[in-house]
Amino acid sequence: MFYREAGQFKTSYKSDQAIFPILQDRIGLGLIVAIALIGIPFIATDGFLNSIMIPFLILALAAIGLNILTGYCGQLSLGTGAFMGVGAYSCYKLATIFPDVTILVHILLSGFFAAAAGVIFGLPSLRIKGLYLAITTLAAQFFLEWMFVRWGWLFNYNESGAIQNVPQKLFGVQITGAAADPVTRYLVVLSIVVFLTWIASNIIRGRIGRSWMMIRDMDIAAELMGIKPLNAKLSAFAVSSYFCGVAGALMVFFWLGSAEADVFNINLSFQVLFMVIIGGMGSLIGSFMGAAFIFVLPVVIRTIPRVLGLDIGGATVEHVSTMAIGALIVLFLIVEPHGLARLWQIGKEKLRNWPFPYG
Amino acid sequence: MKFRSLAIALAATAITAGGLAATAQAQEHYIPNLSYRTGPYAGGGIPFANGFGDYFTMLNERDGGIGGVPVRVEECETGYNSQKGIECYEATKGNNPLVYTPLSTGITLGIIPQTTQAKTPILSMGYGLSAAGIGETFPYTFTYPTSYWNQMSSILKYIDANGGLEGKKIGYIYLDAGYGKEPIPVLEALSEQMGFEWVGFPVAGKDMQNQGSQWLNVRKERPDWMIMWGWGAMNATAVKEAIKTRFPLDRFIGNWWAGANADLDPVGPDGKGYLSANFSGIGTDFPALKDVQKYVVDAGKSQADADKVGDVLYNRGLYNAVIIAEAIRVAQEMTGKKELTGADMKIGLENIKLDGARLEELGLAGFAGDLIGSCKDHEGGSPVFIQQWNGTEWERKTDPIEPMLEITRPLLEDAAAGYIADKPDWKGQTCS
Amino acid sequence: MLSEIFVEPFVLMADIPDLLLQTIWEGFVAGTLYALIALGFVLIFKASGVFNFAQGIMVVFAALTLVGLYANGVPAWLALIITIGVMAILAISIERVVLRPLVGQNEAILLMATIGLSLFVRGVGETLFGGETKTMITSELGLPTGITDWNVFDGRVTFQHIDIAAVVIAVLMVAGLAVFFSKTRIGRALRAVADDHQAALSVGISLHQIWAIVWFASGVVALVTGIMWGARSDVSFALEVIALKALAVLILGGFTSIPGAIVGGLIIGIGEKLFEVYWGGLLGGGTEAWFAYVLALIFLLFRPQGLFGERIIERV
Q1: How many CB pairs under 8 A join B and C?
Q2: What is the model's pTM?
């Protein structure tokens, strides 16, 4: 009875095409945004923001990026980590070449470099698909990772070979660097992620997004109906890599503070892919849920013994948590291969009638 | 955010936020150890963490801590992964940590700005950012007892003393990451000055155990000496490849992370002659180590196997603990407080004086070279010595070799200036 | 610049022919071992359509079990037998617990399941054996360890006996598998399954049994790989990444072709060594990290079906 669209009549095409046509969705989303924007900054501790909320949002953005490619366009990629790296390195270069321009501009621009890299390494998708394509994206992963190490210009030839956070102020408030308040950093990340998620949802609902889904569902039929696979696939690679690139830049500037090439290794690609699969392919809300499951759950598992005051060695905790995460992933894939987003949908359907047996 | 202090009481968030929920603090010296007992480099991380922890356990058992206050070491597993390193830092920073020891260059770089802000020292012992040895620029970062750059200069000095460097060709095989590329500026600078030629052989982290082409290149280039900056599985593989290539092992020198027992055990007697740099003593023939065996290992309070005590990396972890323990003692003496903060600890580290006499008092006579810190010098400039593998054990081969500070110091200063170039608000310190 | 690319490397090859021979031999050995790992992938993919990312951790797990048993006083030969037994149990449990419930799922889901599996196996391995580096029991297993020189062209080509043994064992394994597939009942059933699941089921072939057998076979392949790479360096969790190299071999050779895996392995092994030694310097070295993949990618642009794959007629 709580989640019923009955009685909500649309009197114009505009209102029928709204992102959230159902009132309850609008209220729920408003509530979530309000909590994220106002509630969390008030109650959260620094540690909670720094080691849970900020990484969660950044990884969710990366998961949205990969979801566009894998979930909406059906092209499997294992090069996410490297595309995030392109974003991070280009943001660092932009920030050091133009130190007077605000970092927010650099972050949004850096995604375009990642998009370019994505298009180049997306070219094979025109000839191959499925797992073969996934393995060829490993070429992007390893080649770019090697380039981050070898091309000194990318990290301004500094001795440590790592890129560093560039401290910057916006309107007199420190937003990056160690001096920045975690709440400020959190709010900046939150705004960027919310903004880009909104953009993503609109692209997906539009003509481009629909052409991706047609390619995913049946490429031959799509081509017969006038969708150019070239445009659709490469635009999916570009948009997806843009999101990943921005996430990579955020990762260095708002989360890790510095990064060696190794940060963007294949394990990061796997991490993000897990978020997409566990969250649910072809679902934006699923990307957030997947990020929560894959990133936050291990943190919580590792924290339990510390909070309970159990004297278990750090290594044992790590072993057990690796095992538990692996087992949970397999279990989850068996129980609900369509991901958390599917569970969410089932839940909503149940809510229509609940607590009554019939509507 | 004034509500925050009140809100911390909200248990739900505190639980997920980890260590912040720590109960009222008892009197203790809290030392988080960002160790790694898992992941691809666990082979090096485990003995180091064992030595580190065991020394403090020994001090607690034997002396009741330092200055009457027990030490609590909390290991936080990083797996050599930056994401987890930051998580560990966040989880431990609320418990009044005295010093951080990340044992990873990547994590060190990530937390330097934060720890500087929070006034908590980092002791990145012989790893991390070499430039951090400049005390004026990096008030809270220490690389005692010495840096990669000094180590490289000592190794070159050894080569110079054993057949000369002039006109020779030096091969440099290194892990293709920030760590391995770190000493290249010194090689460049010294090759001009000392008249030798050098050629690099990078080994990708993924190909640590697959070094065929690097050693083919060695055969192609025919260097007179080889120097290695390796870690983990890369070391044993390199020595095996060197044997296969017939490279004379007594002309193959590893740095101090490429000379552990775990590195040469898989090679065994074939590796006889291989050299490596080191700065901490070998074996258990020191009174302090006997105490560790008596109070910790025999009492079953160690995670280490009894026969691994005294290994190169175990002793290095132990030496790391010795430096911290000594700094705590100095800090207590200088501030007159029993319980310390990170800022007090910095004073202790800057005024540390671990010379021969003091080491003997600690039961570690001859364990390491002199380490004398100062406000300016956060690097120590301690000498390293060269050790040689005799087929089953490491043996000390040379006396301590002093680094060429006159070369490395200006390079360090340049690098430190480069680090803060894009950070206009960076706060250094002035040293009198 | 052009001369550095097109002239000098060949001059160098002609100048020091023994180095060229050595490079090719090194590439051949590495290629054989890549091919062996790729074989493990191909077996499983053919029979069940699963792209098994856990192959790398299986290499580590097998090697650790072997070394761990020996360290606990089990004689080497017995340890070897027990390890094979452990791999069999692992194969059967993977089939029961992971594969059977996931039948018919999307290939991405199956891929993810094997990555999840590899996390689980890593956790188990670290709990049981710890993260310390271990030494492979090469001579205890009766494998040769010496070195032989072949003096040729005023130089020498060095052959490590373990490398020769690796090649011989790899050849024997491939030959054994070939015989197994063509001559035995189970082997023929396996080929039937690879051809058409439905048809195979309808003539009474048990898919579950076949799956368990291919996972066991690739477990044995993993053990052999683990022993060989372990003998070349040491046994630690870092060995896991070795298996990634085999993925490039798969693109080149095709996911379902055994000859493709072998030829692809050799091309990549020899190619990456030649490229690194003669051209790598131009790019600052370390090109082995990506060479195999980029080669495979370029190759695929021209021949999407791989070396020996069947041409798929589909124009999209």
Answers
A1: 130
A2: 0.89
User: B111 to chain A: which residues are within 8 Å by CB?
Assistant: 257
Q: Is the distance from CB of A305 to CB of A320 less than 8 angstroms?
A: no
Give the mean pLDDT of chain B: 85
Type of residue numbered B321: A
Q: Are strands B197-203 and B169-175 parallel, antiparallel or unpaired?
A: parallel
Across the interface, do B210 and C136 touch by the CB < 8 Å criterion? no
In A, minimum Cα distance to C293 occurs at A139
Enter the ipTM.
0.85
Instruction: Please tell me the total count of domains within chain C.
Output: 1
Domain that holds residue C236: 2-302
3-state secondary structure of A232: helix
Could you check whether B18-146+283-383 and B148-278 share the same CATH topology? yes
Report CB contact under 8 Å: A47, B17.
yes
Question: Which pLDDT does position B306 carry in this prediction?
Answer: 84
In CATH, which superfamily holds the domain spanning B18-146+283-383? Response regulator (3.40.50.2300)
Residue A192 pLDDT > 50, yes or no?
yes
User: C117-143 burial, b if ≥16 CB within 10 A, otherwise e?
Assistant: bbbbbbbbbbbebbbbbbbbbbeebeb
| Residues of chain C numbered 137-166 and touching chain B (CB < 8 Å) | 147, 158, 160
Task: Give the model's pLDDT for residue B245.
Answer: 85
Q: Hey, where are the domains in chain B? A: 18-146+283-383, 148-278
In a domain, C117, yes or no: yes
Confidence band for A232, pLDDT divided at 50, 70 and 90: very high
Q: Is residue C313 part of a domain?
A: no
Q: What residues in A contact C126, CB-CB < 8 Å?
A: 315, 318-319, 322
**Treating both helix axes as pointing N-terminal to C-terminal, what angle do C242-253 and C207-232 enclose, rounded to 10 degrees?**
120
**In chain A, domain spans:** 30-265
User: Does residue C314 belong to any structural domain of this protein?
Assistant: no
**Residue of chain A whose alpha carbon sits nearest to that of C302:** A127
Q: Which residues of B touch C16 (CB under 8 A)?
A: 220
Q: Are the CB atoms for C205 and C193 separated by under 8 Å?
A: yes
Are B213 and C239 in contact (CB < 8 Å)? no
And the tokens for A58?
Answer: 């950044």
| pLDDT for the residue B4 | 44
Task: Name the CATH superfamily housing domain B148-278.
Answer: Response regulator (3.40.50.2300)
pLDDT value at B1 more than 70: no
Chain A CB within 8 Å of residue C115 CB: yes
CA distance B107 to A257: 10
Closest partner CB to C273 (pick from B200, B216, B233)? B216
Residue range C233-264, pLDDT digits in tens: 788 887 887 788 888 888 888 787 888 888 88
Alpha carbon distance A306, A314 (integer Å)? 9
Q: Which of B104, B302, B423 to mutate to test the interface with A (most CBs of A within 10 A)?
A: B423
Model confidence over C179-210: pLDDT tens digits?
887 888 888 888 888 778 788 888 888 888 88
- Residues B301-351 pLDDT 10s: 888 888 888 889 999 999 999 999 999 999 999 998 888 898 999 999 999
Of chain B, the end-to-end C-alpha distance in Å amounts to: 38
Is position C76 within any domain? Answer: yes
Closest residue to B212, CB basis, from C30, C134, C147: C30
pLDDT tens for each residue of A290-304: 999 888 888 888 777
Please determine, for residue A106, whether its predicted confidence score (pLDDT) is greater than 80. yes
